[in-house]
Fold each of these.
Amino acid sequence: MTNVSEKNILVLNGPNLNMLGTREPEIYGSETLFDIEKNMAAHAGTLGYSIDFRQSNSESELIGWIQEAGNNAQAILLNAGAFTHTSVAILDALQTVDIPVIEVHLSNIFRREEFRHHSYISPAANGVICGFGGNSYILALDAAHAILS
Ligand code: CA2
């Protein structure tokens, strides 16, 4: 893993989140994923963490990163995108790691279509933060810090 330090937070982003900032700003805001990464890195620095920020459109790649995280990270912040609503495999992977997991969403999934109201991932998460746009990630980092402190 890149950017490994003693206090490392793994931030995983699922499918299509690389498209942030290009369309649907009314739902997801106008920040790009890179903007979110930069803001998180700055905030993480003030808390004494480094972040390892990744995105993949592949369920398999996300699962591999989750499996490795137990050895390399103190916590996982995960926006699994649409896999949130479909993936038992990601749930199973999260249940193999023994570090805090915070589920993150930009949008308030409970104000949206009914199929977005259910998350397969939440049972493996310490908590869920959704609806605050890019700030959801900052709030999730604060939540992880509170758990780790
Ligand atoms: O609100 C979130 O963060 C979501 O995880 C985003 C997912 C969606 O399937 C979840 O229900 C909620 C979708 C990410 C796709 O993002 C795009 C952004 C801009 C343009 C196209 C896709």
Note: The helical segments are 25-28, 33-47, 59-72, 88-94, 135-148.
Amino acid sequence: MAYPKLIEKLMEQFAKLPGVGRRSAERMAFWILNHPREEAQELADSILKLKDGLRFCRICNNLSDTEICLICSDTNRDEGTVCVVEDPKDVFAIERTGSYRGHYHVLLGTIAPAEGRGPEDLKIPQLLNRISSTQIREVVIATDADNEGEMTALYLTKQLKSTGVKISRIGLGIPVGSSLEFADMSTLSMSLKARRPIGSLGEEIQE
Ligand code: ZN
């Protein structure tokens, strides 16, 4: 016997979520059915509030529910160091290591010619602006260790050279081709500490 349409519909929605198969979707739908209306309401509200209320920080493009994110507004952090990452998820990955106390700049993507994404689609002008208008001394490039991440790092290096800031690149321990967010905490932490000045790296990639 098929489920009533309303259950079937909710199961279809849950099954769209990453990692949720039909069996889990079924369990979730029945969980909702068996719990008070308020709990369903709370879940529905949270989903919509996230969609409507979350935005990108005006300074660093990290996800935030305020105009300026918690990291940018934290006066105990080192304003002179900015770690450049591809995605807000990378900020959370680095924060979990607890070994970085500087600021961030989220590019919201990478240079990916195959997908029609060029530097103009990234938040690079905003970064250059920050460098010229604040006391940034060092930029740590923490894009992924895959082709797109390396291409983006190389482009950034060229753009940043004339600004005179110290440029470094994380790398040690992050497997080539891999994504930052999946690196384990100690690897990521080591990788940040062992960042290399970019001069030699720029030449390496250009070969
Ligand atoms: Zn911010």
Note: Helices lie at 5-15, 22-34, 37-53, 88-97, 124-133, 147-161, 185-193, 198-206.
Amino acid sequence: MKLAGIHHVTAIASDPAANAAFYTEVLGLRLVKKTVNFDDPSTYHLYYGDDIGTPGTILTFFPWPNARQGTPGVGQVTGFAFQAPLGSLSFWRKHLESAGLAIADEGRRFGEEFIAIQDPDEFVVEFIETAEAASTPPARGTTIPPEYALRGFHGSTLSLEAQEKTGAILTQLMGAVLETSEGNRFRYTLGEGPARARVDLLCLPAGRWGTGGTGIVHHIAWRTPDDASQLTARNELVSAGLNVSPVIDRNYFHSIYYREPGGVLFEIATDPPGFAVDEPLDALGSKLMLPEWLETHRAVLEATLPPLK
Ligand code: ZN
């Protein structure tokens, strides 16, 4: 199989209104789908992305107001990075500071400038300048001037006890290549072009294992073009001895899940059908969207879910 990069990243948040305000108003992403957690319909599932929620730009959250705070550590995706156009970091620094956020980290990594902040739930969010970012059009209607607007994911960092086994899954099964390394950070790339995923495996042999909860990534999904390629991928993973879920219909894509040897939950998600399957592109995210089997509960759900603004 040859996966085409990141499809989406899903994480656990606490307060849905704070989450939505941060990712739409401060980061300039579009809320492309407002729905509920199909396994816990009294809570939201919020999807952010570019104009249409192109795979590779999609960040999704389960906001659980009463969940406990997780501890970041080994066995988790401990950071995700957005791609920013060259020369835009001075804008972002001012913009983030004026929103009351402190720059938590900054520097150069593999020759690229980055800054990092923590979101309202203490997720590490990185902004990395790339020469290629400007070749992707900015999302329309964002609150951020188009020349500075974020252009989808740059990649993500996985914290692991050791990187070899995860690296082997990435290269031997998933179509990634080991590009380079810097200290204990090993960079793999998955897919091609500006939207390829940079998958950094960070080796922390003495690191503490993370625990789930708010502020923690739940899983990372990789992109495949269609159902047929997903089934091929599933067969190859099963043949390699991995425990893979059946195909699950997530309304906006179809998914399979497996845990990689380093402890991180991986998903492979199809590009189709996409977010326009149940509402027009112009209206994405404006209305609470429910799967058919929950429509009869709409009135109750709308009355219970907290407003986002
Ligand atoms: Zn997912």
Note: The first strand starts at residue 6 and ends at 13.
